[in-house]
């Protein structure tokens, strides 16, 4: 059930278990309060149990925010998310470029070593195709 929700804390100062009145699952564990950031339910709070295998999940707020508030929240969410995505893409591009550079360097080292080996072989009079 957790995979259907994007989980985040309800606020910067409050953890997911810092709310009143307490709500418990069937196993008598306090459910965590999260905020949905999905387009369908932006900023709607919900409760979900921490227990493994427990399927307790329900909305905390009965009323969905107005359309204006939802649109603003989605805009702000995307404003924060896009630079993070760009940063990850840039890191990936840098990693790819570094790997390619390392491959080229190791390839050049092999080519240099082969050239040196051929030069050494010529020095001692051995040529390709000659048998030992």
Description:
The chain is mostly helical and 132 residues long. Helices cover 43% and strands 8% of the residues. It has 1 helix and 3 strands. A 3-stranded antiparallel sheet has the order 1-2-3, with no helix packed on it. Strand 2 and strand 3 (57-59) form a beta hairpin. The longest helix has 57 residues, at 67-123.
Structural descriptors:
disordered N terminus; 3-stranded antiparallel sheet; 132 residues; mainly alpha
- Oligomerization state: single chain
What's the total number of strands? Answer: 3
Number of helices: 1
- Label the structural class: mainly alpha
Q: What would the average pLDDT be, to the nearest integer?
A: 76
Low-pLDDT ranges: 1-12
Strands of the widest sheet, in order across it, are 1-2-3
Question: What's the N-to-C terminus distance?
Answer: 70 Å
Radius of gyration: 30 Å
Fraction of residues in β-strands? 5-15%
Tell me the helix content.
40-55%
Largest sheet: 3 strands, antiparallel
List the topology elements.
Layout: E1 32-35, E2 45-48, E3 57-59, H1 67-123
Antiparallel strand pairs: 1-2, 2-3
Give a nutshell description of this structure.
Helices cover 43% and strands 8% of the residues. With 132 residues, it is mainly alpha-helical. Strands 1-2-3 form a three-stranded antiparallel beta sheet, with no helix packed on it.
